[in-house]
Specification:
Layout lengths: L3 E8 L12 H7 E4 L1 H7 L5 H12 L2 E9 L8 H18 L4 E6 L11 H13 L5 E5 L15 E4 L8 H16 L5 E6 L17 H13 L4 E7 L13 E7 L5 H17 L8 E2 H9 L8 E5 L14 H8 L5 E7 L1 H10 L4 E6 L12 E11 L2 E3 L9 E3 L3 E6 L2 E6 L8 H5 L10 E4 L6 H4 L5 E6 L29
Parallel strand pairs: 1-3, 1-4, 4-5, 5-6, 10-20, 11-19, 11-20, 12-18, 12-19
Antiparallel strand pairs: 2-3, 7-9, 8-9, 13-14, 14-17, 15-16, 17-18
Helix pairs in contact: 3-6, 4-5, 7-8
Length: 498
């Protein structure tokens, strides 16, 4: 007879420097499924939930789906949204009992209006109704900020190993298989955590260019071969959250029947030492000025030149409405280009109502904070397409899942197609552009608001990639922010060799 397993997703990456709160409507705009709809919509997708479903099918579990709640990064989660989802979780778990285990997909960098550690706050509520005997397995984004409280609330922790995150389903399977072993009594898992004195490290977790994160993961793999080590997860952390535990961490899930906590802790500390050794190796974006100089001397290619607006990445909670790059392209008289997405619900509504073919002069973008990444930009152009913003992710991230950017338009101004949206979303899938009829493959220059995730879909079509810091909220220059809650001293805010 198979085990009864509750399955939950509650995922948010909270940028504490953003003034935009994360409300229930933020979850509704991204992903919010309850009960069986969760299993129907997420089966066979590149998601942790799909990985759990795979193992459930294989092992004969009875899955008890509670909800899948995912919101795009923004400010801390409001108390109204938190209480709503916690109450849903507790009701769902109560009705699902008896349970043999719980599988939870989290981000790891959620902040709420009442806690720097939103995940532990949520997990503590779950433990309050299921007790300590039922094993809980969690899957985390590798940009998680791990507090000391989390290991005491869970039994199994598995983090992504890729950035861009293309292994979500695989990691879901791994966590679910460990949960199977725990429920059957084969292992007695426990989690320990260690952190180096760093807020930034692991080259932000990048795994596409064979850099520091790859070397750190190789060290983790060597350590993982020891008896009793069930999983080693290396987290790069999330610097856009001003919280005590911001920064890299190492989570080790070990079998208490085989090794002591102290042994696992020592393994974690050794890997932290390796993270520290690579602290000066960062892949930093170039300035907008350098980008424009390179554009002037570029040779044309049959494939697009892709420019990534690192600092205005909605995937890290940036505003998504910065205009600095668009303004520079217009001044340079660049044509046959596309840029997306530019978050501006007011402009999207106005242009949608004007309709395809309409020619207008209006201000776009820069409405959140004109002092960050460029203020409102007055442009004249034509509405090329209007859309409800719905699409299906082509991959490799979120493959098969549906997405939406709300009421959206393609607005052409002086040869540049600007995708203007009413929901803020990182540009990491070709089908996001295509939702408004923009075919990125046909453009000479494609500007994407993204740090790293864009590489999964856009590297195959790119002749060259430039990653640019255009002064948005998520600039890698940490001196632009005031940290009040981070543990000190910490690299690189304090002496670099502290």
């Amino acid at each position: 007879m198979g085990f009864r397993v509750a399955i939950i997703e509650f995922a948010h990456e909270s940028n504490t420097f953003s003034p935009r709160p994360t409300e229930m409507q933020t979850f509704e705009a991204s992903r919010l499924y309850f009960g069986n709809e969760m299993l129907i919509r997420m089966r066979e997708t590149n998601s942790e939930i799909a990985g759990c479903i795979d193992v459930s099918d294989l092992r004969g579990w009875t899955l008890m789906p509670i909800f899948s709640a995912h919101a795009q990064p923004a400010g801390p989660v409001t108390e109204e949204a938190r209480h709503h989802l916690i109450n849903e979780a507790l009701r769902g778990i109560a009705s699902a009992k008896p349970l043999d285990g719980i599988f939870v997909a989290l981000h790891g960098a959620m902040v709420t209006q009442t806690s720097q550690d939103g995940e532990s706050q949520f997990l503590a509520h779950i433990r309050s109704v299921v007790g300590d005997a039922i094993p809980i397995a969690v899957v985390l984004d590798l940009h998680a900020n791990i507090f000391d409280e989390m290991p005491g609330l869970i039994d199994i922790a598995v983090s992504y190993r890729t950035y861009p995150h293309v292994d979500m389903r695989e990691r879901g399977r791994e966590a679910a298989e460990l949960l199977q072993r725990a429920m059957s009594g084969e292992i007695a898992p426990k989690v320990v955590v260690a952190r180096p004195a760093m807020i930034a490290g692991c080259d932000d977790g990048r795994t596409t260019e064979n850099g520091p994160m790859c070397r750190i993961l190789e060290h983790a793999d060597r350590e993982a071969g020891a008896p009793g080590i069930l999983n080693i997860s290396v987290n790069a952390g999330f610097t856009e959250a001003d919280v005590f535990a911001a920064g890299p961490s190492v989570l080790i899930t070990h079998d208490r029947n085989t090794i002591a906590d102290s042994q696992a802790q020592e393994v974690a500390r050794r890997i932290c030492s390796t993270i520290w050794d690579y602290r000066h190796e960062w892949s930093k974006p170039i300035s907008l000025e350098d980008c424009m100089l390179k554009l002037k001397s570029r040779s044309k290619s049959a494939s697009p030149l892709v420019i990534a607006d690192f600092s205005d990445n909605p995937g890290s909670g940036a505003y998504g409405d910065c205009t600095a790059i668009l303004s520079a392209l217009l001044q340079a008289e660049i044509a046959n280009a596309a840029i997306g997405t530019l978050y501006d619900p007011q402009a999207a509504k106005l242009l949608s109502e004007a309709g395809v073919g309409a020619e207008l002069t209006l201000s776009i973008g820069g409405k959140t904070d004109a002092a960050v990444g460029g203020g409102p930009l007055e442009v004249t152009g034509r509405v090329m397409a209007v859309s409800d913003g719905r699409f299906t992710f082509q991959g490799p991230l979120y493959t098969g899942l549906t997405g939406q950017v709300g009421q959206s338009v393609a607005f052409r101004t002086r040869g540049i197609d600007v995708m203007i949206t009413s929901e803020n979303l990182q540009m990491f899938d070709l089908n996001i552009f295509r939702a408004v009829g923009i075919e990125p493959v046909e453009k000479e220059i494609v500007v994407v608001k993204s740090m790293q995730h864009f590489r999964g879909a856009f590297t195959p079509i790119a002749s060259e990639i430039m990653v640019v810091d255009a002064g948005g909220l998520c600039s890698p220059d940490l001196t632009r922010r005031t940290y009040r809650n981070v543990r000190r001293p910490v690299f690189p805010l304090d002496h670099p060799d502290v």
